[in-house]
Amino acid sequence: MIPAEQVQRFRNAMPFWASILLIPLILFVATQGGWWLILMPLSTWWLFTLLDAITGLNLENADLDTTEDQLFWYRLITMIWFPLQFAVIFGLIWYAQHSTHLSIGEKLGLFFGVGVISGTIGIVYSHELMHQKTRSERWLADLLLATVLYSHFRSEHLLVHHRYVGTPRDAVTARYNEGFHRFFPRVLVEGYGSAFRSEAAMLRRKGRAWYHPANPFWTFWALQAACLALAYALGGWGGLGLFVFQAFVAVWQLELTNYVEHYGLTRRYLGDGKYEHVLPRHSWNAAHTASNWLLINLQRHSDHHYKPHRRFPLLQNHSEDEAPQLPFGYPVMTVAAMIPPVWKRVMNKRVKAWRRKYYPDIADWHPYNKGLNPPPRGAA
C-alpha cells in the first residue's frame, strides 16, 4: 500500500502528465508534414507498448484514505486538458486551411493525429471528469465530448453502461465471438438511442416530456453545433471536414477501448429480470505500467466498475484471483481487436477459462453469447 503522503508528491503524479508532451509534438508534425505525421500514432500506441515491456506491471495500490487535497497534481492534468485540446483542434484547422505546404492527404494524416489526441487522451479524461461530483468537472467533460461530437456518451455511460454492464441492455458489452467490425456500427446506433431513451425516461418519471429544457441533449446539441460552426468559420467546408474526421478517429478509439474492456464478460441471469451485482470479474484488468500512465489508470477497469466514483490515482489493481487479466496493455489489445482472427485466438480461450472459473454450473451459454437473456427489470 502506498501511503497517502507519498501519493500526493508531484513526482509521483508526473508520469500521468505524459500526455502533455503530445501537444508540442502535434504542433511540430503540423509544420513538417510528410512522414513526420506518423509520429502521433507511433508516440502513443507503439511507444507505450515498448515502455510497457520495459516498465512491466504495477501491482501497487494507493492508500484509499488519501484525501482530495492530496490528489491535486493528478486532478490538475484533467482540469486543464480542455483548453489545450480546444486550442489544438481549432488552431490546427485554421493552420491547415491557410498553409500551403500540406497536401489533402497530409491534412488528413495530421487530423488523424489530432483524433489520436482527442480520443486517446480527451475522451479518457472526459470519462474521469464525468464521474465526479463537482459541476465544474462534469462541465469540462461535456466540453471535451462536444469536440468529438459524442456528447451522448456521458448519458449512455452513466445511466446505461454502469447500471447494465454485462447484460443485454448494455450495447457496449461486446458479445462473445462478436468481431469489432460488427460491434462498432452496432454500438454507434444503439448507444445513441439508448442514451436518449434513458434521459427521456428520467424526465418522464418527473412528469416532464423529452423536450423539456432539463434534457441534457439540448446542451449536447448546442455545444456540438457551436463546434461545427467554429470549424466552418475557421476553415470553410474543408475545415469542417477535418473536424468531423478527427471526431470519427476519436470515437473509433473510444469504442475500440470499450470493446476490449468487457469482451465476452456477462453477469449471471438470476431470473425475473434480475442479474447479479457488478463485481471486479466483469471487466478485464490490465496492470501494465506505462499505458496506465497514458490512460490515467483506465486499465484498472475492474475496480472502476466496482467503485465508479473513485478517482483514477486511487483505483486498485485486482489480481487474477479477483478479475480476468489482459495479456497486454490497451495499445496492443486495441490493435489486435482490429484483426478479428487474431483477437479471437488470443481472447476466446481466456473467456472460456473465465467461464469455467466463475460459472462452472452454466451449461448453455448461447443466450449470453447472443444477448438473448431478458433485459434487466426496470431498464428503459
TrEMBL record:
Segments forming domain Fatty acid desaturase: 110-334
The organism's taxonomic lineage, starting at the top: Bacteria, Pseudomonadati, Pseudomonadota, Alphaproteobacteria, Rhodobacterales
CDD domains per record: Alkane-hydroxylase
Descriptive protein name: Alkane-1 monooxygenase
Membrane-spanning ranges: 12-30, 36-59, 71-96, 108-126
Pfam family for this entry, one: FA_desaturase
EC code(s) of this entry: 1.14.15.3
Main EC class the enzyme belongs to: oxidoreductase
Topological type in the membrane: Multi-pass membrane protein
GO biological process, one term: lipid metabolic process
Cellular compartment(s): Cell inner membrane
PANTHER family documented for this protein: ALKANE 1-MONOOXYGENASE 1
Family affiliation: Belongs to the fatty acid desaturase type 1 family. AlkB subfamily.
Molecular function GO labels: metal ion binding; monooxygenase activity
